[in-house]
Amino acid sequence: MEKDEFIEKAKQRILERFGEQISHPTLRGRLGFDDALNLAIVKIINADSMNSNEFDFCVERLLALIPTSWYDDEFKQALQDASWYETNIVPSYNCGVMIDVTIMNEGERTVLNTDWTEVLKAVMDLLERRSLLLVKERTQVISEGKPESNEEE
Fold first, then answer.
1. How many distinct structural domains can be found in the chain?
2. What is the DSSP string of 28-85?
3. What is the pTM of this model?
4. CB atoms within 10 A of CB 60
5. Is residue 73 part of a domain?
6. Three-class SS of residue 87?
7. Residue 52 lies in domain
C-alpha cells in the first residue's frame, strides 16, 4: 500500500508542477530548431576534411530539416535545376566477359543525379529570403547627462 500511495503522490506532484504543459503539449520553443539549422550549416562549412559523399549527406540532412511549408516557387525551381536524370548503359557480362551487343541488348539504368552544391545554394537563398541567416538587432543608446559642446561661452 505504501508503494501505491507514493506513486499517487508523485503523479499528483507532477500534475501540479507540469499540468499546464501536459494538458496543452506544444513543441514550439522546445526543439531548438534554429540551433539544429545552425549546427547543420556549421557542419557543412567545416567540410574541408570531408569527402564528397559526406558533403552530399550533410546537405541532404540540411534539406531534410527545412519544412515543406517554407518551400516557395523559387526554391522548388532551384531544386529542380539542381537535379537531373541520366541514363547509363550498363554492358552485359557473362562470367566476366562482355557479351556482344548484337547478341544481347545492353541494360539501361536511369539514375537521378543531384548537384548538392546547387542544393546548398538554394537552401541558403531560401533561408536568406526568410530572414533566418542574419538577424539585425536594433539597439538604442541612451546617454546620461548633458552632451558636451565645443563652443566657448
1. 1
2. TTTS-HHHHHHHHHHHHHTGGG--HHHHHHHHHHHHHHS-GGG--HHHHHHHHHHEEE
3. 0.58
4. 13
5. yes
6. strand
7. 2-129
CA 115 centroid distance within chain: 17
Residue type, 70: W
pLDDT, one tens digit per residue, over 88-129 is 776 666 676 666 655 555 667 778 888 988 999 999 999 888
Report whether 122 contacts 98 (CB < 8 A).
no
The answer to whether 132 and 34 are in contact (CB under 8 A) is: yes
Alpha-carbon torsion, ordered 123, 126, 130, 136, to 10 deg: 70
Radius of gyration of the chain (CA): 29
Residue 143: inside a domain: no
Q: Are 78 and 99 in contact (CB under 8 A)?
A: no
